[in-house]
Specification:
Blueprint (H helix, E strand, L loop, with lengths): L3 H9 L26 E9 L4 H4 L4 E6 L12 H4 L5 E3 L1 H13 L5 E4 L5 H13 L6 E5 L5 H5 L7 E5 L5 H8 L4 H16 L3 E2 L5 E10 L5 H15 L4 E5 L20 H14 L4 E3 L19
Parallel strand pairs: 2-4, 4-5, 5-6, 6-8, 8-9, 9-10
Antiparallel strand pairs: 1-2, 1-3, 7-8
Helix pairs in contact: 4-5, 9-10
Length: 305
């Protein structure tokens, strides 16, 4: 676990994510991501829209954190990624939230966009475990991570639920302002796999330990998606689980990106699935119809916070 003094040091010169902004978040300033010293979250509730081995029949105890260091132009959760929704809470309150979600029957504690709060989360997990928390911890991330920061989570996180969005620098630069995305995502994923090891499931098929890599197919980006899946399979084979997603939903205000105004076609998605199967992917999840809907975006109304 990260000691309190270490937490303060990390926030005084914040280099937690690849933006490396070096802001002193303890002095009232905010990093490139928008986050300050205190945790800000917009929802803590049972969530049923993750992969089956995460959501199960009781739901994943999901905490949606405010702000994000990646800022994708097509973000469906922009109300929280831009920090418009949510309220600030203490580390002690975050620990209480974990325990409350466990009491509600959650299969796990699911931390959504947690990178900029790694020190506070580690402290909250330690507190909650001392009070009896037994659930697996899920780190649900964009994949734009530093391996050094992920290394701080040894003994804290059980399951990594990470995106791998791009291989192409042009696409990651245009859509996420991060032409270096793949470079960082590769190193971070290596650390995640080394930590989590081989996937472990309980008797009900719920993941207790392991790595799931998500990839969202964007309209017109099938070639890059194939490159992502090829890299993952050539590097990790079926040691990881693959979640290939077709739920891209056009968002308003993207006039500068006319190519993103449409949804992914069935033909594009089927081509990606066929490509993955032909490579030899066996441990995988796919989506079927009705996922590209704004109704799948939960309300960020501070429930459970």
């Amino acid at each position: 676990m990260i000691a309190r003094v270490k937490m303060d040091e990390l926030l005084k010169n914040c280099m937690l994510c690849p933006r490396n902004c070096g802001i002193d978040r303890t002095g009232g300033r905010r990093g490139v991501c928008g986050a300050g010293e205190h945790v800000k979250a917009a929802r803590a509730a049972l969530h049923f829209w993750e992969e089956p081995c995460i959501s199960g029949d009781r739901g994943s105890g999901t905490v949606f954190f405010s702000y994000c260091g990646l800022q994708c132009v097509y973000c469906q959760n922009r109300a929280i990624s831009r920090g418009q929704a949510g309220k600030e809470i203490s580390t002690e309150r975050l620990a209480e939230i974990f325990l409350e979600l466990e009491h509600k029957g959650a299969h796990n504690i699911n931390l959504v966009t947690p990178t900029h709060y790694i020190p506070q989360i580690a402290a909250a997990v330690e507190q909650a475990k001392k009070q009896g928390l037994l659930l697996p911890m899920v780190y649900n991330t964009s994949g734009y991570e530093k391996a050094e920061s992920i290394a701080l989570l040894r003994g804290v996180i059980d399951i990594y639920l990470t995106d791998f969005k791009y291989m192409d620098e042009g696409l990651s630069g245009r859509y996420s302002g991060a032409p270096d995305y793949a470079k960082w995502a590769k190193k971070a994923l290596k650390e995640m796999v080394e930590q989590a090891g081989e996937a472990v499931f309980d008797g009900d098929g719920m993941m207790q330990k392991g790595v799931i890599v998500r990839h969202l197919l964007l309209p017109g980006c099938l070639s890059d998606s194939k490159n992502v899946v090829r890299y993952l399979f050539e590097t990790y084979g079926n040691r990881i689980f693959y979640s290939l997603m077709n739920q891209y939903t056009p968002v308003s205000g993207n006039d500068a990106y006319p190519e993103l105004r449409r949804r992914v076609t069935d033909e594009e998605y089927e081509a990606l699935i066929d490509f993955a199967v032909d490579l030899g992917v066996e441990n995988g999840f796919m989506q079927q119809g009705g996922t590209a809907e704004e109704s799948f975006i939960p309300p960020f109304d501070n429930e459970g916070i």
